[in-house]
Amino acid sequence: MTPTLPALRPVALACLFAAALPPGALAQPQAQQAPRSYAIAPGPLAPALSAFAGQAGVSLSFTPAQTNGLRTPGLQGSHGVAQGFAQLLEGTGLRAVAREGGGYTLQAAPQPTPAAGGDGTSVALAPVTVTAAAVRDNGATEGTGSYTQTGPSRTATGLGLSLRETPQSVSVMTRQRMDDFKLETLTDVLEQTPGIGVYRQNNATDFQARGASVNLQTDGMAQVSSGWYYLTSTMYALDDMAEMDRIEVLKGSSGLVVGKGNYGATVNMVRKRPTREFQASVRASAGSWDTYRAEADVGGPLNEAGTLRGRLVASGMDAGGFRDHEKNRSKMLYGTLEADLAPDTLLNVGMTYRRREARGIGTTQPIQRYTRAGAAVPWMPRSFNVGAPWGGYEQDALNLFGSLEQRLADDWTATLKFSHQRVAMDDMVAGYFYDQDRASFGRWRDMESRNWTVNLDVKGTFDLLGRTHELLAGAGISRFRSDVQLPLNPLTLVPLADLGASFAQGGATLPQPDASGWNYGDNSFSQKQRYAYAAGRFRMADPLQLIAGLRVTRYEERDITPYWWNYDMKENGVTTPYAGLVYEVHPNVSLYASYASIFQPQTAQDEQGRTLAPEEGSTYEAGAKGEFFDKRLNVGISHYWMKTRNTAEESGGLTPGGDTAYRAVSSAMRRGWELELSGELARGWQAQGSLVQQSSSLSTTSQYPKYQFKLGTTYRFDGGTLRGLTVGAATRWQGKTAVSNSAATLAQQGYALLDLMARYQVDRHLSFSLNVNNALDKHYLAGLTNFSAVGLMYTWGAPRSVNVGMRYDF
Fold first, then answer.
1. Of the candidates 584, 580, 585, 583, which has an alpha carbon nearest to the alpha carbon of residue 640?
2. What parts of the chain have a pLDDT lower than 70?
3. Residue 184 and residue 295: Cα distance in Å, rounded?
4. What burial class does residue 355 get, using C-beta atoms within 10 Å of its C-beta: 0-12 exposed, 13-18 middle, 19+ buried?
């Protein structure tokens, strides 16, 4: 079943209730169950039925076609199962029929005998097979039609907390939000995510929150991160999001769940899971710069009992770019199986394969605007590409993952998870303008990154002092290794006059060098983490909860390179504590305060060539959160302080090897506040918006805006001549940014972008869409860079683009 725009508070409660039932409870005859009290709001029929079935502890099966477009008057008060179903289905033309052995199915209600002269025809929908598996609520947003998440989120602490119960800022980009505005890559999604800044350095992309970089996870497992910035960026920035149900973003320090990492935010990509009912869809789209994309998604039960379920998602894209001679091709295949090995045992295994090809790359080299001495270089057009058309790479990535969940006695569950990821590029070549007078050439071979993680945790509830509390404890190990062969004698800083190339005419004038005689050196980066953690939610009083945890990490890193220094880093027994208080001042409103920490070893050097000590970051946050309209709308306000030690700040000089030098800044402070709302403002009106302010005592953070505003909203017409039409707009505004050296300043004044969308639902199967990004064709700089050895550089943002699409649901 695929519910749309649900009143999802009952759904979350239903699923949690069903998960806590003892084995065999769902198979008990429904007629013997005593009446219970319900509070299910009027609204779409499908989610209301799911909520009721979950709370009643019964199994119900139906198809999306049976409930499509139907609404229910809701259910209030104490009712038996049969009476409850009857009231929920009043006026829908459906009835719930009990099946032998337990469970219910929907059928068409008997129709009155037609009057004389009628054709006497009546049609009854075929019964649907009932499955007795308990409902598990994993917080999925797919099929809800909502811009907010109402199920539990585990990104912040590992505990299943609602957004209101989480004592940190968490933003969720739902499946509906991504579909409406065609947010098809990770970069697309994070550009519209509240509080996240996306900054480009030519083809490389950096994600930032609260003035610091972010961590990336998939289903709570750490992603591969290369020792080379550009390789890391190319691994993820263009990843297709077709396999994802939602993107959860935790702001601030997250040492409890990631150990070592960045204190800006943690971006957790949560995959789609197999569905208990058959569903399938295909999509196709075409857009500016010869962009073409296709996607197919099918899932459902693979046996009659529904105990084995599968999901298969495939996508492919062939696209140009707004820069001259850019070309990208990608393919993605995602498959997963889910099996109920026993009533209390759930197995999930899957894989994701990605292949990407890019041509016309300029790597991380932006366009020069000012020389190191402050001399101005003429502006280049947005289509200008510093890279040569022959530059590029082919990349393959394979991720294998799985989990085994075992329910234990007394509402306890043990979960074993694993993930193995390999990303490889056999050969990458590049030629690009280093500045207006010189070019650089490179070739990188045999690039491979591997990451594997195994994690075991146990969680459940226990009673103490007359109250029920929750506890989570776990341990794991993760290993990462990245290898690449880099040229020992590349052609670097070659005068353009020697090449016959013209800066004004772009990278297409750069000739491809003969690299057959180049010598290569092995470069290796390896990391290992062993960790143990525990977290708990303790109900101190009816309105007060304490959420606390601790992670202990042993970290090792070894880097070997023939270019500069080799080093080993070890951190033993690093503790990253977490604590938060949540006070419920109203059934819909909570106040909270929290403390979180994290650590990050670093390789930055000072002017004497000494490596800086690991950076430590602590986040203090206080705020209020509310959930309204039966959890269909979430709002929040927060104020944070982020205190760091040993933060690397550019000193203005160079290292002995000629690289940018840094100094360690003690007690650097970042602070700011955030306002956010997400969900349904009125029937058919979805919105997600945020206003963020951030400031820092670090001078280099002037490249990040002090203020940022984002708003995405859609309205669906349910009646009249416009029935089936959805229209929407998204805007992004940010304040001034700038970078400087001793001779010049390069600034981007505050600017706003406007995206538009429209979708027409022809029938329940077919829909057409139109999306226009940067509709006003705003000229803006998507990235500013200060290269101490070169000068001040810039990267253009994308011009206006148009995309038309079609979707068919089976």
1. 580
2. 1-34, 63-65, 68-69, 99-102, 111-137, 224-235, 563-566, 667, 697-702
3. 11
4. middle
| Alpha carbons 287 and 290: distance in angstroms, whole number | 6
Bridge partners, 372 (sequence order): none
Return the amino acid letter for 473.
Answer: A
| 111-133 per-position pLDDT tens digit | 554 444 444 444 444 444 333 33
**In this structure, how many other beta carbons lie within 10 angstroms of the beta carbon of residue 536?**
17
The pLDDT assigned to 407 comes to: 93
Q: Where are the beta strands (DSSP E) in 68-153?
A: 71-72, 75-79, 94-98, 104-108
One-letter identity of residue 779: H
Neighbouring CB atoms inside 10 A of 491's CB total 17
Sign of the Cα torsion 585, 587, 589, 594 reads positive
How many angstroms separate the Cα of 175 from the Cα of each of 198, 269, 272?
20, 11, 10
| Interatomic CA distance for residues 151 and 572, integer angstroms | 37
Tokens standing for residue 365: 């080299």
Q: Do the domain assignments include residue 204?
A: no
Q: What is the pLDDT of residue 192?
A: 97
- Residue 137 CA to residue 519 CA, distance in Å, equals 55
Domain that holds residue 583: 268-809
pLDDT value of residue 41: 75
Predicted local confidence at residue 43, as pLDDT: 74
**Domain holding 541: CATH number?**
2.40.170.20
Residue type, 315: S
Classify residue 608: in a domain, yes or no. Answer: yes
Which of these three, 92, 108, 124, is where a domain ends?
108
Answer whether 284's CB lies under 8 Å from 805's CB: yes
State the residue for tokens 């945890």: 549
H helices of 252-374, in order, are 255-258
SS (HEC) of 232-286: HHHHHCCCECCCEEEEEEEECCCHHHHCECCCCEEEEEEECCCCCCCEEEEEEEE
H/E stretch holding 497: helix 496-499
Q: Which two tokens stand for residue 507?
A: 């990278």
User: Could you give the residue ranges of the DSSP H alpha helices within 753-794?
Assistant: none
* Pairing label, strands 367-371, 345-359: unpaired
CA distance 164 to 150: 9
CA distances from 445 to 394, 487, 525, 563, 659 (A): 11, 9, 15, 16, 23
The DSSP secondary-structure symbol of 550 reads: E
Residue from 295, 297, 286 nearest 319 by CA: 286
Asked whether residue 454 is assigned to any structural domain, the reply reads yes
Helix axes 45-56, 81-88, angle to 10 degrees: 170
Per the structure, how many domains does the chain have? 2
Q: Give the residue ranges of DSSP H helices in 140-254.
A: 175-180, 186-191, 229-236
pLDDT for 19 equals 36
Q: Tokens 């776990």 correspond to what residue?
A: 474
626 by Cβ neighbours in 10 Å (0-12 / 13-18 / 19+) ranks as: middle
Residues 6+ apart with CB under 8 A from 775: 754, 755, 756, 800
Residue 788 belongs to some domain of the structure: yes
Domain boundary among 78, 108, 138: 108
575, 598 in Cβ contact below 8 A? no
How remote is the C-alpha of 788 from its chain's centroid? 34
Q: Counting beta carbons within 10 angstroms of the beta carbon of residue 422, is it exposed (0 to 12), middle (13 to 18) or buried (19 or more)? A: middle
Residue 474 to residue 158: CA distance in whole angstroms: 10
3-state DSSP helix/strand/coil % of the chain, to nearest 5: 10, 55, 35
Gap between the terminal Cα atoms of the chain? 13
What residues form DSSP beta bridges with 618? 597, 643
Q: At 104, which CATH number?
A: 3.55.50.30
For the record, the structure tokens of 345 come out as 């045992």
Which uninterrupted H or E stretch holds 757?
strand 751-761
Give the pLDDT score at 488.
80
